[in-house]
Write a sequence for this structure.
């Protein structure tokens, strides 16, 4: 849609495939191989982007991990920590590192991807994931209040069930053909990162989206 994409992910091969798709569509991208659980690397990322770009107009925080579906008391401690690190702490580190660049844009837009699990209520055996998403939504709301005067607008996007690898891991017996492709959320996402959106951590659910 005309933006220069800064694509961040752990897997170089997947980033290169994405780069090919973006170039085929006439766009351009910079690829950033990075594990979001690496706090030091995120801090250095902020410095590097500040030196190269000076500002960031949009941030889409989409990374997530399912963790382990089991009773709270049975969750492996390392799995719990990894789930919280990726789904919650990494987003705090990102906004801490990128906050000066978002403020410098004047009208920056930040979109956090969430879930009904944790975001709207608890679900048995989804403890680590649900807790991380509940925390993420509070993080988004707090950041929205702290940056509203700087022109930063934050949204919380709930895409609902989608045909993804994570969904298949959580619901192995589900027919994927009954689920929406991830591309279905694009119109909502475009709205959330546009100047048209002027909410403060408004929760935007795809199932309610009518545009």
């Amino acid at each position: 849609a005309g933006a220069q994409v800064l694509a961040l992910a752990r897997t170089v091969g997947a980033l290169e495939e994405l780069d090919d798709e973006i170039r085929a569509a006439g766009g351009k991208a910079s690829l950033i191989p990075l594990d979001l659980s690496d706090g030091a690397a995120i801090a250095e990322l902020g410095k590097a982007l500040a030196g190269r770009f000076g500002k960031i107009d949009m941030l889409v925080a989409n990374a997530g991990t399912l963790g382990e579906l089991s009773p709270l008391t049975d969750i492996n401690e390392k799995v719990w920590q990894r789930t919280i690190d990726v789904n919650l702490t990494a987003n705090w580190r990102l906004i801490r590192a990128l906050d000066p660049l978002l403020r410098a844009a004047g009208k920056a837009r930040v979109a956090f991807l969430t879930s009904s699990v944790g975001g709207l209520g608890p679900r048995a055996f989804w403890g680590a994931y649900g807790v991380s998403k509940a925390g993420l939504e509070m993080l988004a709301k707090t950041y929205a209040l702290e940056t509203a005067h700087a022109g930063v607008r934050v949204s919380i996007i709930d895409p609902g069930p989608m045909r993804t690898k994570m969904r298949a891991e959580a619901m192995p017996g589900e027919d994927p053909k009954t689920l929406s492709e991830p591309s279905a959320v694009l119109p909502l996402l475009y709205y959330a990162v546009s100047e048209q959106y002027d909410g403060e951590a408004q929760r935007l659910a795809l199932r309610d989206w009518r545009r």
